[in-house]
Amino acid sequence: MRTETINVYKLDELSAEARETAIRSQQDFLAEMWDPEFTYDYYEEKLQEAGFENAKINYSGFYSQGDGASFTADINLKVYVQKLIERYKAVDLQKVNEERKQEVKFILHYLPRVIKLENEFNFRVVRFTTRYVHENTCCVESNHYHSHQRLDALREKLKSEIEFDRINFCREIYRDLKMDYEAQTDEAAAIASIEANEYEYTADGKIF
Question: In what order do the strands lie in the sheet with 122-127?
């Protein structure tokens, strides 16, 4: 029988190279354990409040071409239109050009009628490819049963507003996912995790 003595070290007792190895290993572990569900839950609730119901969020990230976030959803027109009316009512007409002023007046005049004509306006956010999941892999789809010049104009305006909000939400979701991931896996988080778990290491920075 042979007995060996192995020296074990706390993180701060390691050489600079071994310390870096230990921290990187812990960062890799934290990255594997990172869970986006908290951010998903937050935005699913936020999306519903904005009129995007039954949202299903997907992302890929965070440092490769094609990474991003997107979602599919049904549009609750009553909720969405009410939010849109509030947004347009907040526009200061004294500070916008004439074209914008007319647009605001058009929206505020006709949008309340949309709720009464709910069956004429059917929107949803759909995914048209599964290869990637960034913001440009989804779009707003609209179905309608009757065509009329003013109805069509209002439908197109609504579609563009929903698309505008969809893109902004996609970017917000991806930004917050990335921020949370980096906060949970950066060097400070790794060191805090190592210290909280009182890990010890061999001289080469491998966990004992």
Answer: 52-60, 68-75, 122-127, 138-143
Tell me the domain boundaries of the chain: 51-188
CA distance 120 to 115: 10
Question: DSSP code of 73?
Answer: E
- Which parts of the chain fold into alpha helices (H)? 16-33, 37-49, 77-89, 98-116, 149-185, 187-197
Q: Is 185 exposed, middle or buried (0-12, 13-18, 19+ CB in 10 A)?
A: buried
Asked if 127 and 70 touch (Cβ cutoff 8 Å), the reply is yes
The answer to whether residue 191 scores a pLDDT higher than 90 is yes
Choose among 56, 15, 3: nearest CA to 206. Answer: 15
For 49-88, the pLDDT digits (tens) are: 999 999 999 999 888 888 999 999 999 988 999 999 899 8
